[in-house]
Amino acid sequence: MAVSERRGLGRWSPAEWGQRLLLLLLLGGCSGRIHRLVLTGEKRADIQLNSFGFYANGSLEVDLRLLRLDLQETDEKAPLVGFSLSRVRSGGIRSYSTRDYHDCPLQRNSSSFLVLFLIDTKGLQVQVRKYGEQKKLFISPGLLPEETSKPALPKPEPTVTPEVDSGTSTVNKAKAKLAVSQDPNGKDKELVLGLSHLNNSYNFSFHVVIGSRAEEGQYNLNFHNCYNSMPGRERPFDITVMIREKNPDGFLSAAEIPLFKLYLIMSACFLAAGVFWVSVLCRNTYNVFKIHWLMAALAFTKSISLLFHSINYYFINSQGHPIEGLAVVHYITHLLKGALLFITIALIGSGWAFIKYILSDKEKKVFGVVIPLQVLANVAYIVIESREEGASDYGLWKEILFLVDLICCGAILFPVVWSIRHLQDASDTDGKVAVNLAKLKLFRHYYVMVICYVYFTRIIAILLRVAVPFQWQWLYQLLVEGSTLAFFVLTGYKFQPAGDNPYLQLPQEDEEDVQMEQV
């Protein structure tokens, strides 16, 4: 469930932050592909409810259980409140922030919309307007029966909409009826759904069935209240809506169906890499440092995190929601994995245990920044996974996660740069030119590795997600996990505990100096 909070984020005390995070963990993440969104006192004009990739015979069910509007008498003839359903063939960025405030999406004929559901509160009806040719996109009133394993392909029959009784608390008996007007060619021209009015609130429900492969795609469902389009003249409203999406093989979106197997395979790969790394450490105990075991812990934590992520997708696909206990374990391992990843990269980049045993004050400050930011990034990830897309603070948490992640990626580069400068200066002063130049060369290689890792997992992966067709967007996760595995393997190869590794050639006199400083 996602309930919008009207209280400012900055007003929460540390205890309240802890309570909210604990609540999110106990809730076990979002409710999968069965969503329930509750917004009270909402003032946004456009709400992005969800995005889902449908195959043929997939179904979308929408149950508007409560809509309470603070409407005044206006001269507007066309409805200014309703839903829009649009389709894209590939991933894209949905935003209404750049449109004209006077422009209502419900009042224009746009090729970007597939279907509009216009809520007429005066006539107690919902006008369904289709744009373009959708011969196999079936829209019907009500929800699909629970016992049906696969959605049927209904063909709406023309009916007569019953007259609506007058009164302040009338219930429109046409809620389960559908009126269809047709042109001479027999094509559907406009559909009309019944709208119920009870206790100053409105409700109705409908479902959409994707009838053929020609109608497949990424569908975006949005809610619009054009009365709030003008800044400073917003009218608060309450809305409760249940959304259920389903494909023929389960509740996962088209791009998410392969993720169960993908994460399971990648979990096995990281586990194998971790076991191999431990065997290497056991064969070279003399040259093993503490950070080597930290690298092993990172590989195993990553494997466990991916395993529970895979299990979550399995239960979401079969039940529509994850198992709460397993979701909590996934979030915990994800948090530990994120912290270990950036700490390990920063420690290796600083040369800790390889070219020195003590961190400088600048490097300690980097850790003092990266660790709290990683905690914040993981909190943002948990909040995003636990909130509905239409929640008022969903976009804010996504921006926090993106910004904090970029800051962490930039911060971990500083220790690498400082180590390169330190080795450049040392090669000209202490007489150990050959050893320091070898270390310098490898540190430069590591710097390039970190840059490539950040570039592929943050930039290229996002561009790939936007460019590929909707059913191939899982390639984004494949690129991220594959790049991470390659980065782990290359880092282990560069820092393997071998006697001829320039990273591990710390001269004996340097060791004695360090020991004297510690004493």
Automatic annotation (TrEMBL):
InterPro entries: GOST_TM (IPR053937), GPR107/GPR108-like (IPR009637). The keyword Glycoprotein does not apply. The chain crosses the membrane at residues 262-281, 293-315, 335-359, 366-384, 396-418, 446-468, 474-493. Residues 147-168 are annotated as: Disordered. One of its GO terms (cellular component) is cis-Golgi network membrane. Its main location: Golgi. Coiled coil: none annotated. It comes from the Eukaryota. It is a multi-pass membrane protein. It is found in: Golgi apparatus membrane. Residues 258-502 form the GOST seven transmembrane domain. Keywords: Membrane, Signal, Transmembrane, Transmembrane helix. One of its GO terms (biological process) is negative regulation of toll-like receptor signaling pathway. The keyword Transmembrane applies. This is G protein-coupled receptor 108. It comes from Urocitellus parryii. The gene is GPR108.
